[in-house]
Design brief:
Layout (H helix, E strand, L loop, with lengths): L11 H11 L3 E3 L6 E3 L1 H20 L3 E2 L5 E3 H4 L3 H7 L4 E5 L2 E4 L2 E4 L4 E8 L4 H11 L8 E10 L13 E11 L2 H22 L5 E4 L11 E8 L5 E11 L1 H6 L2 E3 L5 E3 L1 E8 L1 H10 L16 E5 L4 H20 L4 E3 L7 H11 L3 E5 L1 H6 L1 E6 L5 E5 L3 H26 L1 E3 L3 H10 L3 E5 L4 H11 L2 E6 L6 E2 L6 E2 L2 E5 L3
Parallel strand pairs: 3-9, 17-18, 17-19, 22-23
Antiparallel strand pairs: 1-2, 4-8, 5-8, 6-7, 9-10, 10-16, 11-12, 11-24, 12-13, 13-16, 14-15, 19-20, 20-21, 23-27, 24-27, 25-26
Helix pairs in contact: 2-6
The protein binds one RNA strand of 77 nucleotides through helix 1, strand 13, strand 16, helix 10 and helix 11.
Length: 488
RNA sequence: CGGGGAGUGGCGCAGCCCGGUAGCGCAUUCGCUUUGGGAGCGAAGGGUCGCAGGUUCAAAUCCUGUCUCCCCGACCA
């Protein structure tokens, strides 16, 4: 069989690109650093979006939409925020073009009085709006989410993991009290953890970011960190407690029960199409993409096999009855009745695109009342009885969902180490990679030194408290071990 | 933005050193045979060689500039 995908051990980056390409998820666009998301990729994102959106609704959030453009002056109102994003903004300076011998050029007369920034994130434009929405404690909380695209002018891009324009959701909430805003921040982190693990079957570590990794303008940044198959970490989602920073910057105050005017407390949280990259690097193999059943646009594909028209008629009739049965059970099923491809080609293609289950049916099966059931995750095949196939498939999809998580978790755990000395830390990092738990004295100096010397960063300070000890570098006291890794 | 590699039919590549007017595999179209792991044979269509200059009788090939992509750094979801 022709191997179209580079082996993972051989060249992980190339393997990743091959999987994206063979699964028809996305491709580079003519615009530098941007990508075209193909129907397969969009279908996957839409399912992720739906899963997340339901969870947001269940926790009392509503969707809204704010402008793509942010006046430059808005961005500069919160000092840390502007510092964090200033270096990577797309700026609109003019409003029209004019024709010049055959071509067009920017019309200098159309220069804007105030430049517009293409949103890199929407805190500023949203908090400027919130000012007019909030007068009384009765107007709070505001629990808003928006699905949008944002632009960050990145130097180096990678499909899904880091593109200049990406799709995401950003939640922006406003609260009367600090406790409530913190509770919201933590709740949304839990939503992300649950989505990553229960839908994406991607195990994550939840924790807090160190000061240097914190979101620009946040008091505290919480995150979920996943480990990819090559031993590098991926920040998969963040939830920020913003304190009163944006309320201060945009003068968002409310009159409380006690009659006092107070600043509003804030949170913001987001996940992006980067999750698709995480999904790929968590489950996929040398045959291509592997998608957990809950997110798969197509969960089951039926491939008919036949030699002549008579067999074709019989097999397709048989396939149709299975198709209808699965469809009635709410399973996303496709019957691949394309006549111009042979079964072997279809098998390979459906594996590359990550369809969790394949049902192959030929004349033999029609005669014996069987089907061949093949699992994408394990690449195993079994002959099963046609009777009761619906229930069996439904159960099997659930099994695959669980198995994918368990397999990924086992791999993650095997690639997770705990060390007590800096020497050991360096050795593990070099030979094995993966997550490494180690004591750290809590200073940015030590963090920077470790990063400079080893390229590993503190992914998070895990929420599950560990035992106190001494920093592996300086020997100073440490409250708990923190999570290190090289990161994407 | 620094270091390295690469841009040639839709995709993957050869040709470049040593200039002479473009080729291979896959894909596409048509025909026949095929169909339980990426089909076979025959025929056909498709490229101003990333772009812009320059050298030359002649440029995919040499020179200059420029854009883009990939890998490694710095930055980041």
């Amino acid at each position: 069989m022709a191997q179209k995908i580079t082996k993972r051990e051989q060249d992980y980056s190339q393997w990743y690109l091959d999987v994206v390409k063979e699964a028809k998820l996305a491709e580079h666009s003519p615009v530098r650093g941007c990508m075209v998301i193909r129907p397969n990729g969009m279908g996957l994102w839409e399912n992720m979006r739906q899963g997340l959106d339901n969870m947001f609704k269940e926790t009392g959030h509503e969707n809204a939409y704010f402008p793509l453009f942010i006046p430059k002056s808005f961005l500069s109102k919160e000092a840390q925020h502007v510092e964090g994003f200033a270096k990577e903004c797309a700026v609109v300076t003019h409003s029209r073009l004019k024709s010049v011998d055959g071509g067009v050029e920017v019309d200098p007369d159309s220069k804007l009085d105030e430049e517009l920034i293409v949103r890199p994130t929407s805190e500023t434009i949203i908090w400027d709006t919130y000012r007019s929405w909030v007068q009384s404690y009765r107007d709070l909380p505001i629990l808003i989410n928006q699905w949008a695209n944002v632009v960050r002018w990145e130097m180096r891009t990678r499909l899904f993991l880091r593109t200049m324009e990406f799709l995401w959701q950003e939640g922006h909430t406003a609260h009367a009290t600090e406790e409530e805003a913190i509770a919201e921040t933590e709740q949304m982190l839990e939503v992300y953890r649950s989505f990553a693990e229960d839908f994406m079957a991607m195990p994550v570590i939840t924790g807090r970011k160190t000061e240097s990794e914190r979101f620009a303008g946040a008091i505290e940044t919480y995150c979920i960190e996943a480990l990819m198959q090559d031993g590098k970490a991926l920040q998969a989602g963040t939830s920020h407690f913003l304190g009163q920073n944006f309320a201060k910057a945009f003068d968002v105050k409310f009159q409380d029960k006690d009659g006092e005017h107070k600043l509003v407390w804030a949170s913001s949280w987001g996940v992006s199409t980067r999750l698709i990259g995480g999904l790929i690097m968590t489950h996929s193999d040398d045959q291509g993409l592997v998608i957990p059943p809950k997110l798969a646009p197509t969960q089951v594909v039926i491939v008919p096999i036949y030699r002549d028209d008579e067999q074709r008629t019989n097999v397709l009739e048989y396939g149709d009855s299975i198709f209808e049965e699965l469809k009635k059970l709410g399973i996303r099923v496709k019957l691949d009745d394309r006549d111009n491809y042979k079964p072997g080609f279809k098998f390979a293609e459906h594996e590359a695109t990550g369809i969790p289950l394949r049902i192959a049916i030929g004349p033999r099966d029609v005669e014996n009342g069987n089907v061949e059931l093949a699992r994408r995750d394990t690449l195993t095949k079994n002959i099963e009885s046609r009777d009761g196939i619906g229930v069996m498939v439904k159960d099997l999809l659930e099994t695959i969902q669980v198995d994918l998580f368990e397999t990924a978790k086992k791999r993650r755990d095997e690639m997770t180490s705990e060390v007590d000395s800096y020497e050991e830390f360096k050795k593990v990092l070099e030979n094995k990679g993966g997550f490494i738990y180690a004591h750290w004295d809590g200073t940015s100096e030590t963090e920077d030194r470790i990063k400079e010397e080893t390229k590993a960063t503190i992914r998070c300070i895990p929420l599950t408290q560990g035992k106190p000890g001494n920093c592996m570098v300086t020997g100073k006291p440490s409250e708990q071990k923190v999570l290190f890794a090289k990161a994407y």
